[in-house]
Amino acid sequence: MPCICCLYILHVVSYLYFMLQLEECAVHLWNWAVTKNVGNNINKNQKAKAVVYMQRCREMLLRLPKETAYVSLMCYNFGVDTYQLKKFEDSSFWLSQSYDIGKMNEKYSPGSEIQAKILRLLATVYLEWDWQRFQEKALNAVSLANEESISVSGLYLKIRILLRCGAPDDHIRAGLNEMLQSDVSLEVCLSTVKLLMSEDREVLGFEYMKCVCLHFESSPDLGSALVLHIELLLHRGKELLGKQKIEDIITGHYTGKQLTPQALSRLHVLLWDKASRHFETKNYSESLQWYNYSLSFFKAGQIDPNLAKLQRNRASCFLQLKQESYCSAKEAVKEAERCDPDSIFTQFTVYKIAVQENNVERAPKILQHYFWSACCMDKCVFVCVPATAWNSALQCESSPDRMRDFFVLSYQASLAQLCPPDRTILMGQKTCLLMAAAASLELCRRSPPLTQTEELTQALEHIQICWEVWKTLKASGSFPLDPTDTLLLLYEFEARAKLNDPKVETVLESVLELENVETKVLETIAALAMESPAHFPLLCKKALRVALSLHKKQPQTDLSRCSKCVHSLIKLSLPNGVSEVEAHVLEEVWDYYEEALSIITPDDFPEMETLWLLTRAWNTGILMYSLAQYPEAERWCGLAMSFIRHLGSLRESYETQVQRNEPFLSRWAGEGEGSNRGVFVALEYYSKARTLVLS
Ligand SMILES: *[C@@H]1O[C@H](CO)[C@@H](O)[C@H](O)[C@H]1NC(C)=O
Ligand SMILES: *[C@@H]1O[C@H](CO)[C@@H](O)[C@H](O)[C@H]1NC(C)=O
After folding, report:
1. What DSSP string describes 223-251?
2. In a domain, 588, yes or no
3. What is the predicted pLDDT for the residue at 594?
4. For the whole prediction, is pTM greater than 0.90?
């Protein structure tokens, strides 16, 4: 009779034996996972094998029930991978396996929340695969998921499926009620309303919107629902109803029921949008009414640049409404001057009023005033504010075409002067031409591709005349700290790059020759080199490399901007697929990685960047692996691993996972595209597939 001890040892040995077998199965399955997108033939064979191994795993689970969750998770991970590759049939297979395995043993199953998650993904797979064929299955899966564990995503998914299948209103209404009863957030309800609208269930959408407003009546964020309601009404041409709701909000505003600042600015955007549309169709009184609504939310005497702009727009409406409105126009522009007296836009409106009033005497004076304020701006604004801020000031004004015409006209008016141009006039001319060029570039950004060339050519003309004016000015004295050279070069670079003009390279050379060129300028150049329709990756990289070297020379290196440069350099250089893998390209990327490693040491390097670098290096390794270049694959995966020690909080979670020997579990962290998902995938591959690389 064997002693108790021997029995025990026998038990342990057989347990270990099964564990090893299970482990082996898992490794085989991982082989499949790593190679599954290599090629169709391999894939088919591998998949058949994977299915066999999975069956063996299932049988073994009867002996090793504790591993139930582990095997279920592994199947789920395959389900996720194949779903992302859009292999829906495979994905539905693995997800069903995952769910069934989870059901095999109540005690060791991954738990009902996770089971629900598996089912939700399964329902999504059916929906995206072929919703007409599988609508029943999709609905069953999501209903089962909600039975396992009720959740917001489950409820929302159910509505999505019902809508996709064109279910009758009653069914959808039941789902919507279920949502309200389950205390989902206002935000989710509003997304659901938008979903209903986008699926053309307008009646149901408005009905639900009303229920939601009632349900959240005392919520502090009710305003966001009210504003969305107005937005939907306006988009569907229900202006009268929309106006009623707006007037309700205005009444509420004066009786202690103010909107949150976010909801209020959203409402202003809607109102201004409506107003400017009516202005464009020349319905000025209607336009004025929408601006008046917006005005209701400002306090008397408030100083706010938006109020200045609003008053200028109101003045423009009054002006168009002719005689009887000049007084109101003047009042409005007076308000605008109070809020923002130095704005050339305000001065422009004053000028327009004077011209329209036939105030011939006053108009030239105002034009002088305009030049004066333009010169003022030249000195203070241009010196302190970089080109981008200047551009965005332009973007704010709704019609760059009118702005451009105005500046061109002003420039031409200054040419008509009898006396020889003095310094002030030349400065004014320079400003006008710079503004006209900027407005043309802005117009180009907003126009359809066909008319872009025209705008760009015009911009280039303004730039060239401006260079002449600027040369004359510079000959008359020095202008320390004047950024005109930089601005002109930036504008010229943008225009030529978008015109696909090879001279753009010389412009970059001139930028690099500037004294004390700023990194910000180089970064802007880099962005412009790739802003559609421009496509100059080599120039972009050149600018970035110089920017990076300048950053590193600074006494206090700005790590986040350095990391952005390195990021862009790597992104631009990494091969986009098998056909682009060349040794010299990889060497270049490798050098950028070394740059990254050289700056990464201090603590405040952005962690998400480290993750990004790690993942891209890892994926390059995997790419090399799939091309059977094993030493290269090792080198890149090793590089990726060297970033792990720079991870902060994420590193800890990685390490605990390794200790618990549950590398797969991390996959549950996020249902969607979690930003750290990539790295965990990478780490999993590392911990499981490494043996593969070596064997
Ligand atoms: C202006 O718009 C309103 C509302 O859309 C409309 O009722 C009115 O007839 C329009 N007026 C003109 C002059 O087009
Ligand atoms: C807008 O408000 C002004 C007074 O601030 C008023 O004179 C004008 O009639 C209003 N216009 C419309 C269309 O509501």
Report:
1. HHHHHHHHHHHHHTT-HHHHHHHHHHHHH
2. yes
3. 92
4. no
